[in-house]
Every structure is written in C-alpha cells, then in structure tokens.
Amino acid sequence: MLDSPQTTTILVGHVNINSPDAVMVRVTEIVIHPENNYIYNNDIALLRLEEPVTLNDKQRPICLSDAPKERSPSLPCYVSGWGVVNVTGIATIELSTILHHTKLKIWEQSKCERSYPGQIKPTMLCAGYYSGEMDACKGDSGGPLMCQTQPDQWELVGIVSWGEGCGQIGKPGVYTRVDYYLQWIQSVTSYANKEGVTCDFEHPDLCGYTSKSQSEFAWSRRSGGVHYPIMPDMDNTLKNASGHYVYTYFPYGASQKSAVLSSPPLPAKEDTSCLYASTIIYQCELCKLEVKVVDSLGNLSGALLKVSSKFSTSWLRFNVDIPMSTQHIQFISTSGQWSGGGIGLDDVTLEPGVCENTMKVNCNFDNRTKSTPQFNDEICSYTQESFTDDFDWLMVQDKENGDGFLRAQNAFGYQGYRARILSPRLKSYISMCVSFEFRASSRSAGFLQVCRLLSVNGNDSLDCSFWSSRLNAFTDPTSWTSVHVTLPSSDFEFSIVFEMVQGQGQGYIDIDDIFKLDGDCL
C-alpha cells in the first residue's frame, strides 16, 4: 500500500475528475493498518486531510455500521470508481475521467471461499455476479462498496481490494470488510484528549496541530523505517522505526515554497514561556525551519528562530522564548535549492519561564549594585577570564541616562594585551545567534572579537574566528552599533567569550545588551 501523503490528494464535489468545479484536498497522513500485508490481509488505510471537507448537496459523508453484521445478498449495493471501464483497456490502464458505478450483489461467505480456495479471510467479502460482466476493475482499488441499509441511509460496507481479472465468470471482486475494523477506525479517529502545544506526535490526532500550505507540499505525520522518497528512519521520541514525527518532503521544483504547521491555541499566561523542539534537516540544501507566533489580535510576528543547513543526519534540539501574548505558534518549513529531502519536527514542549540558555546569555548590565566602576561577578553570570588575559572588563554607568554597560580599558598596557569575559557553560546542538551593542573610543584603541571556548574531554580550546571588529569597517566606531554573530552548532559544552585586544593607542571598547536566539541570525 502506498504511503506517500505528500503526493496524495482527494477530489470532492464532482464526478468529472478534470472539472474546474472539483475541490482538491491535500492529504497530510496515510494511516495504514499496522498488520497490513499488501492485498492479502488488512488492506485498509485512513487518510487524514489537511482541512475539513465542507458538507453540502454535492459532498456528504457516508455512514459506517455500528457493529459487524452479515449482509443479505438482496441488499442494494453499488461500487464506484474512476478505473478501467472496458477490459480491453486493462493492459494500457485506460482510466476514466468520469466517476462510474455499477450495482452488485454481496455473496455468502462460503460461496466466496469456494471461488478463491484458501485465500479468503474473515476480513474480506465478495461482491458481484457469478456470470461476471459487472465488476470493479483496475484503477478502482480503494473505492467504496456502498449498500443501502435504510430508506435514507447508505453504509460503506467494503473497499475495493483484489480479484482475478475483471468481470470473470465465477470470480467476484474481493473487498475489505469495513465493519471488521470499526474498533481500529475509532482508535485512529478519536482524540486522545491531549490537545496542546506539547506533543510527541505519537497519536494520530497530532495534539490539535494543523497543517496549512499553498504550495506542493505540506506537513504530514510519518513514522520511521524504510521510505521512498527517503525520509528519517527513526523518530526522536522512541528512537526507532515505530515512532512518529511530522515531516515536510520537498518535491522536485518546489524551490523557496513553504508549508505551515500551526499549534492549537495557547492558554492565557502572564509571562514568557520556553518552547523546546527537535528538528532534522534531511538531505536538502539551503532549506530552513522558522518559528513565528500569532498574538491574540491575529498579528503574525517576524521569525523568532531560523534553522538552516545543507542537511543533518540526526535530530537536533532547539529552544526559543515565546512571548506571553502568543495565541498560536507556527513552524514554517521552506524548501531550498536541492530537492528530494525535507524537514522533520518532533517532541515539542512548552514550559513556563525564560529558556535556560537565554538566562545564561542575555544581559543589559543595568543591575549594577556597587558604586565603584568594577565588574560585578553576580550580574548575568558572566565572569572575568582571570588566568590567561592581561586586564579586566569594568562595569560602567552612563552619566546621562544611568544605563550600565561593560568597558575594557587599559591605560598602561601594551599592544596585544587582552581582556576577556565568559558566559556560563552552554549546550546548543543547532546554530546560535548572539547579538550585542558595541562601540570604541577610537580605531587605534584596539579591536573586539567574539570567541567560543570549547570544553572537550576536560581540555579547553578557544576559537576567535567568528567575528572581529578589526575585519568590519564601521562608519563611526565611537557610536553604538548593533552586531549579530552566528555561532555554529556544537556537540560539546562551550562558553561565549568577548575579547578586547589592545591596539597601538590608549582608549576603550564598550559592549552592552547581549542576547541570543537559537538558530541563524535573521
């Protein structure tokens, strides 16, 4: 059975498959019966739609039985489909563009078993005529066998599955018996009463998340294992092939198009929350995942996070602070230049309070408690690097507005002397954007660089290749300038380091308003 929701749509509202009035609805998940064995047993699946179908005179739901029951051969039943209508077209699969139907009789189970010795199971039923002629055919698979059980009620009794030829004498069509699967259908379609932002996507109801897309692809619920097209072979929750995640597969030619996964409504809250989630960027180049929020007035924010990469081979954890006025959270997947891969999402959680890394990095240096200009070790958890540098950063208060900031100044040092401050140890399995304000008393005062101090097996390694004011031409270095630096992901703990290197002349360098976002700088 084909498990490819990204290439599957349904048509409603018209019998002509090419009619401009027909409504196409995207499929976001194909739930195949867990014990499916091709056509030989449990040949049934459910399609989850991207949005509800509007009910009207042209499109109405069909009923299901309330319990398994034997059907009388006298029951009026019809099968319909767009399959082959003439046996001469079987070889070339000449499908119809018009929906056809034909009346059939349900066979007694014993008679059905005699027609196909050793092949008929309790999950199957036969319908047709011994003389043949009228039957479902190639291209009708998955179509409905509908029976009138009440004067104004039709039930879905069977699903076109298999048979020998089309309309052959003594060889009726074989159908999946729908009422055998009522409990399974109920388990898949019922809600788990777990609607909310926090979700591991193991239940088919997706915790109330909805997919919206105007392009060729959409978010769909997938599981691990071997897939075509290629997709992650395991989820992040269970870390095996049976676990589920949501995924956007990018078909060829879908460059720079997006699909949106929207959370259910957030409960009203009075403070910032921290959103955690795991993502995998799988075999796609320059594709990206963004997180945006919709506030209580319906306004869509800019991106709070952007993760982009050529590809990753494992699930990566990220976090982002969610404002208190948020009504919905949106995960936006955008295709890149190379097709054939996609982006996965799993294990979304929302916890009260600011994210841990945010508390460790963000600081405006205004909480100065001492009157003398010195570095306060308690402010924002930043610390002086006291072993290998040459002088210190000082806490300074602006004389005009009272705002605090950090200043590195050494009136008696030599060119090349260094002053460093370090953030607490951090963990970030995706890139991180560090932003801050910077100014210098003059170009000759020296330069500032952003470094990362990695701790690998107890050994520290300092890398200062990410950003340097020496390599950036500032129009006026004496004015506050906003700087944004992307630090790549790391499998090891690290500290962010701000380092001033003294120049030829006397002077100082100031920094202020440090904050970080997970993901690339926007």
UniProtKB/TrEMBL annotation:
Cellular component, GO annotation: membrane
Pfam assignment, any one: Trypsin
Alphabetized GO MF terms: serine-type endopeptidase activity
Keyword Coiled coil: no
CDD domains in the record: MAM (cd06263), Tryp_SPc (cd00190)
PROSITE patterns reported in the protein's UniProt record: MAM_2, TRYPSIN_DOM, TRYPSIN_SER
Occurrences of domain MAM (ranges): 197-357, 361-522
GO terms under biological process: proteolysis
Keywords of this entry: Disulfide bond, Hydrolase, Protease, Serine protease
Domain Peptidase S1: 1-190
Domain of life per record: Eukaryota
Record protein name field: Uncharacterized protein
